[in-house]
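Trying the structure run again after the queue cleared.
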Amino acid sequence: MTGPPSTPPAGDAPEAVAARPDASPSGGGTGGGVGPAGGQGGRGGRGIDRAQALRLLRHVGGRLVTAAVSLFAVVVTSFFLFRILPGDPVRALTQDRAVTVEQMEAMRREFGLDQPLWQQFIDYCLGMLRFDFGVSYQYREPVTDLLLERIGPTVLLAGSGTLIAAVIGLALGTGAAWRRGSVMDRANTGVALTLWSVPSFWLGLLLIVALSSGAGLFPTSGMMSPGVTGTFNVAVDVAHHMVLPLATMVAVVYAQYMMVMRSSLLDEMGSDYLTTARAKGLRDALVLRRHAVPNALLPTVTLIFLELGRVLGGVILVETVFAWPGLGSLFYSGLKVPDLPMVQALFVVFAGAVIIMNLLADLVYPLLDPRVRS
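Done. Tokens:
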């Protein structure tokens, strides 16, 4: 049998006790490590922090490099992809006018289409570095100005749709998982999967026929009625025009959030910590709100970041159907020519939004889940 722990003689000075190898401020020995310093004193804790910081820096650096490579690939792809599309921009712009061959050649020189392909690519890349996307063939305006003019309506529509879809999807997914197998669960899942499989342009046309052309409740196109003045009146009119395109987007998108939240919460419901929380006498509503939902939200938060990037390019069909004056309708009009500077710039914007949101999701996830940093 081992005896009681040895204690220093009464006559020992405090300095002698502090100098012993087995002494520590917290009263533990060399293997204790129960105090704030633990084991190696303050150096051990700081060493672990430095290691975590280095891992986090490597994580961030790797994601930044990956994003930069992906963005460069998008820039290269956007140049060559639209050059293989059928159609001649000069012929498309002059098809309803009587022009001579000399005038058409002058337009090609103006657009830079008479240059060799490698020269066009170099000029295109140099312009990208200066955020100069060139001049639109059909609008005869700088593409950057057109993008800045149209990005507001797109962000308004896409941002509002994503926010509403996320709130509805998270709420319905939580309720469906907590009451798994119930009538509500089966009904919500069936409706969500049905709407998820419906093409957005087809659903938008149905809403126009039913609620606009038929019932006359909402406008069929545009963002604002002509002649409306006053901040409040303009806001109400824009909201009135947004109802149908917003409903189309939300109906198609919310199912993703609902199904991911439902699946994630079902995985959490079998965890031991929830059983322990119930054993302590916590009500089911409290267990759901404080313990299950926060952990189940992690995959959904990542999905929201990714969808914020994808939805920016996904509004093309919705904006085209409802003639919403955003980037989507601008991209559609550019494809018909083809307006090469316009579609190239919009392709980079749409793909770049996905890359940036994917990068933000990678950077935010370690802050939400400490296990990623270990």
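Confidence is low (pLDDT under 50) at residues 1-47. Worth checking whether this holds up in the mutant runs.
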